[in-house]
Automatic annotation (TrEMBL):
SMART domains: HTH_XRE. Residues 233-256 are annotated as: Disordered. Residues 12-67 form the HTH cro/C1-type domain. This is Helix-turn-helix domain-containing protein. It comes from Micromonospora coriariae. CDD domains: HTH_XRE.
């Protein structure tokens, strides 16, 4: 009989012995009786509540899935193939990948971005090792930075923030002295550092990169407004070049709209990091700076895959409120922003990830039904956001503790291998 075939009580007993604990010691730490522990280990008492399993796992210093006998790589867990991505990142020689033209590789990277934006993470896990090999052999800084950025974003999603940071750091190295490429790589660095709990480092990295990008002039309007603007995601307008009114009236050199969007994205990452550091005033200031940029960016080609625009700023304000513990404000802003047309046109990955954060806000105000709605909506928009991300599983577990748990979340808990 393998460890996965054991009854949960036997697994509890095994881990208790591994931790050099007696039944009485375990009972004391759980604030329960020795008889209760004995009955659990012998299978006389059934562990049918996830909250109790989670408490046991905490005391035994293991993941709840270990006690449940759930394998880590399941269709509703981390997809198989992450080790292949790790191996691709560990190769320092030029891989012997089939030669591809830059145009072919660019098409593959575009496909990978679309796969990511549609939250098809298992498919992307299978694509990335070959894409990394091809990009490393292409000797193109732009394409290599993009390949590393996609890799970093996916690894952060799947809960491997340290490996995600490695990929982001590789993107920074590949960018070299190219300022815009370095700025896009800094976005990935910030995301990976925040995911690993290093908010102060993330704040320093993203704020430094944002300041290097500068701030667009506010007069005249940098980019034209358009009725079809969708949160900074449209592609059919060309930015106007403002004139230099300091003399001569000649057009002055100006960054493209997509480059300002990278700067705005860096400011939002810095704001989230500041909120994570417990600095709400700086978080608000940085978000306001990003809002100033977003107000001028209407209808641009989002070639750097930032998704930046007014809607992105509004969503960031919600997440900042969650991070600083002001869940009431977060919920109020959330209800408003998801009613807008621009919200529905954001990529599935963006909406799904945000809805998991919104569920956290509802949890903070004690609204289990609101949290359940957000999670169910996230699952309908981007199932992999809920079923593959460790963060989402944690939120599901919290909501599933309710008595009774909302039906939609009870279903999700079963899908991801959690039982109440």
């Amino acid at each position: 009989m393998t460890s996965d075939d054991l009854p949960i009580g036997r697994r509890v007993a095994r881990w208790r012995v591994r931790r050099s604990m007696t039944q009485q010691m375990l009972a004391d730490r759980l604030r329960r009786s020795k008889s209760w522990v004995d009955k659990v280990e012998r299978g006389v008492r059934t562990l049918d509540r996830y909250s109790v399993i989670q408490e046991l796992a905490h005391v035994l210093r293991v993941d709840p899935e270990v006690l449940l006998g759930q394998p880590r790589s399941t269709p509703t867990g981390t997809p198989d193939g992450v080790d292949d991505i790790r191996a691709a990142l560990a190769r320092y020689d030029t891989p012997q990948a089939p030669a591809q033209t830059p145009e072919e590789l660019r098409r593959q990277i575009g496909h990978a971005w679309l796969t990511y934006q549609h939250a098809h993470y298992p498919q992307l896990v299978r694509l990335l090792p070959g894409l990394l090999d091809a990009a490393q052999g292409a000797q193109s800084a732009e394409l290599l930075v993009q390949a590393y950025r996609i890799t970093s974003s996916l690894l952060v999603k799947l809960g491997d923030a340290d490996l995600g940071w490695l990929a982001a750091d590789r993107a920074m190295a590949a960018a070299g002295d190219e300022p815009v490429l370095a700025a896009t790589a800094a976005v990935s660095v910030g995301q990976a550092l925040r995911a690993s709990g290093r908010d102060r480092l993330a704040l320093a990295a993203t704020l430094t990169a944002a300041n290097r990008m500068g701030t667009p002039p506010t007069r005249p309007a940098l980019f034209p407004l358009g009725d079809h603007e969708v949160g900074g995601l449209c592609r059919d307008q060309t930015p106007r070049q403002p004139h230099d009114h300091r003399g001569g009236g000649a057009p002055r050199p100006q960054r493209a709209a997509g480059e300002w969007a990278v700067g705005g994205t860096l400011l939002l990452q810095a704001a989230l990091a500041a909120a994570g550091c417990g600095d709400p005033r700086r978080a608000e200031e940085l978000t306001d700076r990003a809002a100033g940029i977003a107000a001028q960016l209407r209808g641009y080609d989002d070639q750097h895959r930032t998704g930046f625009g007014p809607t992105a700023v509004d969503l960031a304000r919600v997440v900042v409120a969650v991070l600083r513990g002001d869940a009431g404000e977060a919920v109020r802003r959330h209800v408003t922003v998801i009613r807008r047309e621009a919200w529905r046109r954001l990529p599935a990955e963006y909406r799904g990830a945000y809805l998991v954060d919104a569920a956290r806000a509802y949890l903070q105000v004690g609204d289990l039904r609101g949290a359940a709605r957000a999670l169910v909506d996230a699952d309908s928009v981007a199932p992999a956001e809920v079923r593959c991300r460790p963060l989402a599983r944690t939120v599901i577990a919290e909501v599933a503790r309710g008595h009774p748990a909302p039906a939609g979340v009870a279903r999700l808990a079963t899908l991801v291998g959690l039982t109440r």
